[in-house]
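Our preliminary data section would be incomplete without showing what the modeling component actually yields. Below, a chain of 249 amino acids is followed by its predicted structure, encoded as tokens that our downstream tools consume directly.
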Amino acid sequence: MRLTLGMTPVDSELVLPIHYNHLVQGLIYRVLDSRVATFLHNRGFKRGSRSFRLFTFSRLLGSFRLNRQANTIVFTGKVRLVISSPYDAFCESLGKIILSYDRLRIGDGLLRLDGISVATPRVTTDAIDVDTLSPITLYSTLPRPDGTSFTYYFHPREVEFKRLLLANLIRKYEAFKQQYDRPAQLEVVALGKTKLNIVKYKGGVIKGFSGKFRLTGPRELLQLGLDAGFGSKNAQGFGLCELIEGTGS
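Predicted structure:
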């Protein structure tokens, strides 16, 4: 399920740091029921040593301009935020509580809540075309000759990208539902150009790719990716995609 929040800046403009993912994540945790928020933040859904929060969110969608000197992004007019999760308690808590607010704070900015719309996009075919609402990130930690390590972020056209994407979907499925013991393959085709996005998050840097993609694989895994996010770091605001009209359903 996904919720789309329609908002309008109270002071005509919403001024945020260019890298604002942590502020949106903070808003989500603040408005959740404390029980749900504590479960997701402290534990999440376990699969071995890995933990998945199983929610994701979009970039803030609306007209904006960048102020590079001040390192800010300025939104003018209406702003939308899309939040998605397969976890019913998360969606119900978020929707119910947020309706009790008439104003929401993101960072130092105050927005009037104009309304909430709810959608449940469904995957009914083995191939879907999607457009990213927040970039997809997949990475590995690799060793250097001197014994140190570094994080390598994979490009969508690299073979390792689709391997890691499939493995990530299976781990999420097993954390949220049950053991996935069926053979599975995943194909990823970029539909046109992809864009590298570099996001600073709480002192670190995360790289992801945005664009349009055709994903071909098991429907249940594609559905979970659509609901919980594709790739890694979903709860930090990565991997939310929307179905391109006329495909996948």
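The helical segments are 21-31, 34-42, 88-98, 159-176, 219-228. The first helix runs from residue 21 to 31. Preliminary results of this kind motivate Aim 1 of the renewal.
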